[in-house]
Amino acid sequence: MSTRFLDLSDPARRHVLRGSAALAFTAALPRAWGADTAKHLGTLGFKPVPASTADTLQVPEGYRATVLAPWGEPVGLPGQMPAWRDDASQGAAEQAAQMGMHHDGLQFLPLGPGGQRGLLVVNHEYVDDGLLHTDGTETWTAEKVLKSQAAHGLSVIEVAQHNRRWQHVRPSPYARRVTAQTPMALHGPAAGHRLMRTAADPSGRRVLGTFNNCALSLTPWGTVLSGEENFDNYFVSQADPPDLHHQRWGIGPRSWSRWHEFDERFDATRHPHEPNRFGWIVELDPQDPSSVPIKRTALGRACHEGGWVALTRAQRAVVYATEDAAFEYLYKFVSQGRMAPGGAAANRELLDKGTLYVAQFEPGGRGRWLPMVQGQGPLTAAQGFADTAEVLIKARQASDALGATRMDRPEWVAVDATSRWVYCSLTNNRERGRPGKPGPDAANPRAENHMGHIIRWREDGDLDGLAFEWEHFVLCGDPQQGQPHWQGNVRGDPFACPDSLAFGPGQVLWTCTDMGSGSTERDSTRAFGNNAVLACDPATGRFSRFMTGPVNAEFTGVCFAPDGKTLFVSVQHPGESPRGRNQPQQPDRYSRWPDQRPGARPRSAIVAVQRDDGGVIGLA
């Protein structure tokens, strides 16, 4: 089942859409905050909220939160408005026209001046099949697989302010769903390579779908980059002897999705190259609903949390990319070409040529970027890297060979455009220092790292520099707790397991926490309450708790309207079962958010947060 798109064959309609896109591109440039933010630089002005375990969304005094676009609401495709059903009885075709499940990273792209109207683009990371289907996983069918695939991917919706309240605009010519069945193009050095060819795609240049999309970032030319994270969990491989390449990527005899039972391409035993077509960073132009999403293979293959673009002074694109997996790596791509004026169309090939690097953090606060160039050092044909494409497809093996630093689940990246410090959250790594596992090192200093930390570095020279200085910005935890695994050096409100990062008005650093509902880190962080959004005063380094979420939910991405007066945030998996993704058949057992009706299924949603007085978010 392919996602249907609006017909843009009419020239007049195309002109209107691309004209709006040009305005959006201008307004979407970095640090495009409204003038009101300049006079409040870096001074937090809200009363922090207390830790909470309630099944509510809590915001500071003087603020309000509006729920937008929960899972199952129609995105606004013209002529396709399937309504949400409380029993989740909508089929796969209906789900493909509705908001997907488990909202993750999101971005706002303004349409026209003022930012009172715009597009929200949101990832849908994964699904709880127990909640997605009326009878959960009691039975398993081809239709359930199709519905699960339709609930993955991305959504593009139009929103607008009316009387200072945001509303979902439906129908909209921009509305779009991208799913695990949407046709996509492969670009860059690995496109067409023998390891990318399958029986269904002998060219190795076309692939169906994207899934497990996690972080989402905005490029300076007006597109978004979406990371394909734990793609390995969707495939099975029962090869005998085991396929060593698949083993290095965690692909084995079981998968959490069970898609392979009714969709043969997810059986890597029969189709060993299909997994190679996932784990990339996908570029999407939200302002052109007819555009084909592109997987940018020059950025390397990984269990990508995401990729974040910054520009050198010479206008070369630098993409920092992370891999959210224990003991995996942190990457940087530097484009060969320079960003051109003219938005997405003028920069269509910018991310297809350049050099990929992997980070090595050295003791003493210095580090370097190791080039991942075929033929250099250990990256030779004799070592299993016959060409550039093979280095990119086997990026983990290449990073192993180069001796890069194995990190504690690097997640989001945020670049301070003023100081040029680059921040990266490392959520946790409980395996650090355990028998048979790597021990602590300079960049990852804690054994059995339950709490996580935020690291930052500054490149020598410009952002394309090959060496850098680095330091720990914060070791998360609670300094007042006696448990050794709970302690940290947080100033202000204690928190654990940092995930999403973003700079907002006044160069305030915002972070969201990800304490898993059924995991060991959640068991050891009961003192922190539900997951939260925190703001860090750049002048003092103190963190203040801004929001707390409903039961078993996490916040998975923040972004701001251009005037800084609205914060958009994703609330993901409220009511998640501590036992995993097959929720019991009592939908409201853990949470009823956001509907709060007896029997209501918990639903991920986008939330718009505003001040009652119309001021800038977070600042005095």
Task: Describe the 3D structure.
- There is one protein chain.
- By secondary structure, this protein is mainly beta.
- The chain has 2 domains: 30-66 and 88-229 and 279-611, Neuraminidase (6 Propeller); 230-272, no CATH class.
- It has 9 helices and 30 strands.
- It has helices spanning 11-27, 92-95, 129-132, 142-150, 244-248, 343-346, 388-393, 395-402, 520-523, and strands at residues 63-68, 103-110, 117-124, 153-162, 165-169, 176-178, 183-187, 206-208, 213-218, 224-228, 281-284, 294-296, 304-311, 316-323, 326-328, 330-338, 354-362, 366-371, 407-408, 410-415, 422-426, 453-459, 467-475, 498-503, 509-513, 532-536, 543-548, 554-560, 566-572, 605-611.
- Strands 13-14-16-17-18-23-22-21-20 form a 9-stranded antiparallel sheet, with no helix packed on it. It has a 6-stranded mixed sheet with strand order 8-7-12-11-10-9, with no helix packed on it. Strands 2, 3, 4, 5 and 6 form a 5-stranded antiparallel sheet that branches.
- The longest helix is centred in the N-terminal third of the chain and has 17 residues, at 11-27.
- The chain starts with 10 loop residues before the first helix and ends in a 9-residue tail after the last strand.
- Mean pLDDT is 91; it is low at 1-32.
Task: Describe how the helices and strands are arranged.
Elements: H1 11-27, E1 63-68, H2 92-95, E2 103-110, E3 117-124, H3 129-132, H4 142-150, E4 153-162, E5 165-169, E6 176-178, E7 183-187, E8 206-208, E9 213-218, E10 224-228, H5 244-248, E11 281-284, E12 294-296, E13 304-311, E14 316-323, E15 326-328, E16 330-338, H6 343-346, E17 354-362, E18 366-371, H7 388-393, H8 395-402, E19 407-408, E20 410-415, E21 422-426, E22 453-459, E23 467-475, E24 498-503, E25 509-513, H9 520-523, E26 532-536, E27 543-548, E28 554-560, E29 566-572, E30 605-611
Parallel strand pairs: 7-12
Antiparallel strand pairs: 1-30, 2-3, 3-4, 4-5, 4-6, 7-8, 9-10, 10-11, 11-12, 13-14, 14-16, 15-19, 16-17, 17-18, 18-23, 20-21, 21-22, 22-23, 24-25, 25-26, 26-27, 28-29, 29-30
